[in-house]
Amino acid sequence: MLAPIKKLAKYKNKEGDIMHQSNIYFDYYNNEIDLTADELKYFTEIVNKIKSKLNYDGKILNSNFELFDDKKVKDYAVGICFKNENDYRIFIDNYFIHECYEALTKDYIKTLIENKTIESVICHELAHIKYWNHCKKHKELTEKYIKMIK
Ligand SMILES: [Zn+2]
């Protein structure tokens, strides 16, 4: 969310892989946990809804942001938009998806994720396709998208 659009090719993890789709996140004890089938279904349904309402056909994928060296991505971002030539890819962090799913039934989690939702984060990243920086127009477009998907 805080990280602006990046060139995909620059985004390599320790193994030299560029960011790719993955269903794993790490828990507090660094165990590798797979998103559950319900969590994945929840995420996919949101992605499909947004794609259909905004008539957007690009890639919106989930990944494990902790695998990436960039501290901004690792510690703060829950969504990121990459550009490779004219191909855009949006990634949403698996741990954030897990938290959002938990927040559906547990009120205390809601306070942890503040007012962020998977929908609002994807809209924020989609607005980066048009506006690279966090300018006023980026904010307005994000808000427009959020209204359009309701
Ligand atoms: Zn941003």
User: What would the average pLDDT be, to the nearest integer?
Assistant: 87
- Summed up, the domain count is 1
How would a textbook summarize the main sheet? 4 strands, mixed
Oligomer: single chain
Helicity range: 40-55%
- Tell the overall outline: globular
Rg over alpha carbons? 15 Å
Note the beta-strand portion. 15-25%
What small molecules are bound in this structure?
zinc ion
**Using DSSP, what is the number of strands?**
6
Structural class: alpha/beta
What are the secondary-structure elements, in order, as H or E? EEEHEHEEHHHH
Q: How are strands sequenced across the largest beta sheet?
A: 1-5-6-4
> What are the segments in which pLDDT stays under 50 over at least 5 consecutive residues?
none
Report on the structure:
With 150 residues, this protein is α/β, with parallel strands linked by helices. It has one domain. The strands form two sheets. A four-stranded mixed sheet has the order 1-5-6-4. Strands 2-3 form a two-stranded antiparallel sheet. Helix 1 crosses helix 5 and helix 5 crosses helix 6. The longest helix is centred in the first third of the chain and has 17 residues. The radius of gyration is 15 Å and the shape is globular. The mean pLDDT is 87. Bound molecules: zinc ion (ZN). The site of zinc ion has 5 residues, from helix 5.
